[in-house]
Specification:
The complex is a heterodimer of chains A (about 400) and B (about 70). Chain A is α/β, with parallel strands linked by helices. In chain A, about 40% of the residues lie in helices and about 10% in strands. Chain A has two domains: about 170 residues, Aldolase class I (TIM Barrel), CATH 3.20.20.70; about 140 residues, no CATH class. Chain A has 15 helices and eight strands. In chain A, helix 7 runs parallel beside helix 8 and helix 8 packs parallel to helix 13. Chain B is built from one helix and no strands. Classes of the chains: A alpha/beta (about 400), B mainly alpha (about 70).
């Protein structure tokens, strides 16, 4: 689709408010990569009246949002299951002028028979997402030996929310398990996405070089795995989105950056309410995460491309970044962190190689049968891949 | 250790295929997230990225766009 259509597409997203209720800071796990400060745990939970006032405010105000997606987040939200139940049942005892969908992001280890029964009843109104870091060895390394607990609950979660991707998170400890983990989740027939943390997990130059070599090896194993299974698609952003614009014959990278869309809703279509009712652009701006007070000025405005490394990089228009983490590390939401730079490039190479193999596996007659716009799209992607092979990243 | 390299056979195969497909119709088509993306690294299922596959739900619009 042309750039302008992409922007039109994004406008649809602007009709929905993503309201996150940070219902508790407590968690029953201590995942090694968690960005929430452990010292801020045990600070209580949100009051029912705070949740009521917040929801009523956003549901009733005339702000242009036609839909509200209400997310329960923490900490581990199921630690305050009675509060969640009370909020949802109160909500559906009233009529509202906006459409709504609830969500719970959980580690999946605390589900009881009572919770399952209630969630089953509300399965079309509440989406439950969960985290699993792959094979037992990898998951247990980072998530408090909780694999067996989440594994037991997967059939229930898959049954009710088959389309909600589970989250796989990789850090330095689990890089050697990436291939085994992804293949394990594919064998469980799970829908999942996720990738490397953005934090600086790399250590000194020698350690980083070694970790990147292992990561490349793991991704190469997965390229072979997915190449043999044409109906499966690898998780994103572990396999990074192919920067298709590199296939544009008249690519002007500066123009592309100038015309690019805001890709994240934080501060605009996203708002997070902390346990005390205070408001943040998204949960990554909570002092619990950043260790900083809220920024003074507006957030989430990509008016410039920083640091210099990103300004000069042809990949920055497609590179993952988190504005909350940018603020935490750089004190500026627009100034990007770059710890993941080399790993991201490996993710692009993996996508590029897999797609190249799949292109070569396609029969000429299959291409001939493609509609013109699809053939055009494939040609563009092919141009991008050839560009990357010939010129590097 | 395996490497993400592209051998001559793969590269030549792509070039042959590209020649057969002919020129692209226009050069402004992009079905890709432009501006970056969060990558889902915050672990929350916000509607901007991690609900991308909930397109069957009433209020959900696929994000980011799929090929």
């Amino acid at each position: 689709m042309p750039l302008i259509d992409f922007k039109e597409y994004a406008k649809e997203e602007l009709k929905r408010l993503n309201l996150t209720l940070f219902v508790t800071r407590n968690c029953n796990l201590k995942c090694s990569y968690c960005y929430e400060k452990a010292s801020e745990r045990d600070k209580g939970q949100m009051d029912f009246s705070t949740a009521q006032d917040t929801i009523a405010y956003y549901m009733e105000r005339d702000d242009g949002h036609e839909n509200v997606s209400i997310e329960f987040f923490g900490g581990e939200p199921l630690l305050v299951f009675p509060l969640i139940k009370e909020i949802v049942e109160w909500f559906y005892s009233h009529s509202w002028k906006k459409k709504t969908l609830f969500g719970i992001q959980t580690n999946g280890t605390l589900l009881t028979a009572e919770m399952k029964e209630w969630l089953s009843k509300y399965a079309k109104k509440i989406i439950v997402g969960f985290s699993i870091d792959g094979c037992k060895e990898a998951h247990d390394l980072n998530r408090n030996n909780s694999y067996d607990l989440i594994f037991a609950n997967i059939p229930f979660l898959k049954k009710h929310w088959p389309n909600q991707p589970a989250k796989i998170t990789v850090n330095d400890k689990t890089i050697p398990y990436v291939a085994q983990s992804v293949i394990h989740l594919e064998n469980l027939n799970l829908n999942f996405n996720g990738g490397l943390v953005l934090e600086d997990i790399w250590g000194d130059a020698e350690r980083k070089k070694k970790l990147l070599e292992i990561y490349e090896d793991q991704l190469a194993i997965l390229v072979d795995f997915y190449a043999q299974r044409p109906l499966l698609f690898p998780p994103s952003p572990l396999f990074a989105e192919l920067p298709e614009y590199l296939g544009k014959p008249t690519l002007e990278i500066e123009q592309l950056k100038n015309e690019s869309c805001r890709f994240c809703g934080a501060g605009y279509e996203m708002v997070t309410i902390d346990i005390d009712g205070s408001r943040y652009p998204c949960h990554r701006f909570l002092p619990l995460c950043t260790g900083r007070p809220l920024p003074d000025g507006p957030v989430n405005r990509q008016t410039r491309w920083e640091p210099e490394k990103c300004a000069k990089c042809n990949l920055s228009p497609s590179c993952p970044t988190c504005i909350g983490f940018n603020y935490q590390i750089n004190g500026d939401t627009a100034k990007r962190t770059t710890h993941h730079c080399e790993a991201f490039k490996l993710g692009i190479l993996a996508s590029c190689k897999l797609e190249a193999i799949r292109f070569n596996q396609m029969k000429e007659s299959e291409f001939a049968a493609l509609p013109a716009d699809e053939k055009n799209n494939r040609s563009r992607r092919l141009d991008a891949i050839i560009n990357i092979i010939e010129n590097g990243l | 250790m395996k490497k993400l390299t592209f051998n001559a056979e793969l590269r030549d195969g792509l070039k042959n295929l590209r020649e057969k497909l002919g020129p692209t119709i226009s050069d402004d088509a992009l079905s890709h997230v432009v501006g970056g993306y969060c990558g889902g690294t915050c672990y929350i299922t916000c509607s901007w990225y991690c609900r991308s596959d909930q397109s069957t739900q009433e209020v959900i619009i696929p994000w980011p766009p799929k090929d």
